[in-house]
Amino acid sequence: MAIETLYDKDGSLNALQGKTVAVIGYGSQGHAHAQNLRDSGVNVIVANRKESANGKLAIEHGFDPKPVADAVKQADVLILTLPDEVQPDLYKKDIEPNLTPGMVLGFTHGFNIHFKTITPPQDVDVIMVAPKGPGHTVRTEFERGGGVPCLLAVHQDASGKAADIAMAWAIGVGGGRSGILKTTFKDECETDLFGEQAVLCGGLSELIKKGFETLTEAGYPPELAYFEVAHELKLIIDLIVRGGLNYMRYSISNTAEFGDYHTGPKIVTDDTKKAMQQVLKDIQDGKFANRFREDYQDGFKWFKDQRETDHNHPVEKVGKELRAMMPWIKPVDVDKL
Ligand SMILES: NC(=O)C1=CN([C@@H]2O[C@H](COP(=O)(O)OP(=O)(O)OC[C@H]3O[C@@H](n4cnc5c(N)ncnc54)[C@H](OP(=O)(O)O)[C@@H]3O)[C@@H](O)[C@H]2O)C=CC1
Ligand SMILES: CC(=O)[C@](C)(O)C(=O)O
Ligand SMILES: [Mg+2]
Ligand SMILES: [Mg+2]
């Protein structure tokens, strides 16, 4: 079913003029929304712990990070860019008590509204602008004159202006340059969880790790394996981003294209698609959300164990060494962030 796609010409920043927007959480998404909106002429304040790396970065970027409750008291529009697992408790403690009629509660992912772990009062607007890209690229694309496509949704329209405010927000962060899709909190939440688990992050990480392990366990050098199954991915993805699978296949050799069709379905099989359908079902029925919350209540023990194991995967070690030899890609050592 076709979806309405909007661009800069379909809206304006007017609905945010004269308003104070508080970005709550200066992390991956928050630092981008705060700076992009400020660059777009919006009055932005930031809430974050001053002493953390993100708090210090906010100060470096010219903001004065405030405690959450203080920022809420000074704002007309709130943009919650806190971790999904943190939002419910912080909402109860610092946000809900300071909400006043006519305020706007904005999210960048529908998780807590969709799974009803946050239920706002009826007299505020509840909107979402969810970029279809990592927060750091929301900033870098904006800086280079582009923009990351965004999903836009209105969950509650107490003011009658919720859609205009959401559009001004989406335009202000650069979404109107590449496309703003009008959707619902439910569809954004379920498709985003599915995409990040089955394809973008979960599926892709396992493909890289198992491809690397297959080659190195067969005796090929780790450097060769890294370049083959990890580094070259961006070059392939860039072709797909510019011209779809067809352009990627146009650009690669006949040998590779033949192998693409010949072997692809053996790796990502019909059983893989059945597993994807089960993943989607577990998302839709809340099973994943419950698992995520349970582990959070348990101090994210399982999550931290997984993170530690993969942090030390051999592909990460050899990759760090090889990336350090390529200064033009601006290599990042996550251990130094
Ligand atoms: N990461 C991404 O690319 C995307 C994220 N989203 C959504 O954006 C939202 C934010 O995610 P993301 O940007 O990844 O989050 P991050 O983990 O990158 O940043 C979270 C920020 O919240 C702050 N924070 C955490 N706890 C508290 C607290 N108790 N009091 C004050 N500040 C706190 C952190 O500050 P401190 O540094 O002090 O801990 C940090 O600056 C989520 O809803 C996510 O689903 C949507 C699309 C993509
Ligand atoms: C970057 C993004 O879109 C994700 C994967 O959904 C996220 O970080 O939550
Ligand atoms: Mg996403
Ligand atoms: Mg996500």
Task: Describe the fold and architecture.
The relative contact order is 0.10. This protein has 16 helices and 8 strands. The model has no long low-confidence stretch (mean pLDDT 97). Strands 1-8-7-6-5-4-2-3 form an 8-stranded mixed beta sheet, sandwiched between helices. It is α/β, with parallel strands linked by helices and 337 residues long. The protein binds NADPH dihydro-nicotinamide-adenine-dinucleotide phosphate, (2S)-2-hydroxy-2-methyl-3-oxobutanoic acid and magnesium ion (2 copies). Residues 25-30, 48-49, 52-55, 68, 81-84, 86, 90, 108-109, 130-131, 134-135 line the site of NADPH dihydro-nicotinamide-adenine-dinucleotide phosphate.
End-to-end Cα distance, whole Å, is 42 Å
User: Which hetero compounds are present in the coordinates?
Assistant: NADPH dihydro-nicotinamide-adenine-dinucleotide phosphate, (2S)-2-hydroxy-2-methyl-3-oxobutanoic acid, magnesium ion
Q: Provide the gyration radius in Å.
A: 21 Å
Largest sheet: 8 strands, mixed
What are the segments in which pLDDT stays under 50 over at least 5 consecutive residues? Answer: none
Question: Would you count the extended β strands for me?
Answer: 8
Rounded mean pLDDT score: 97
Major sheet: order of its strands? Answer: 1-8-7-6-5-4-2-3
Shape: globular
Series of H and E elements: EEHEHHEHEHEHEHHEHHHHHHHH
**Fraction in helix:** 40-55%
Overall structural class, as computed from helix and strand content, comes to: alpha/beta
Binding site for NADP(+): 26-29, 49, 52, 135
Protein name: Ketol-acid reductoisomerase (NADP(+))
Cofactor: Mg(2+)
Family: Belongs to the ketol-acid reductoisomerase family.
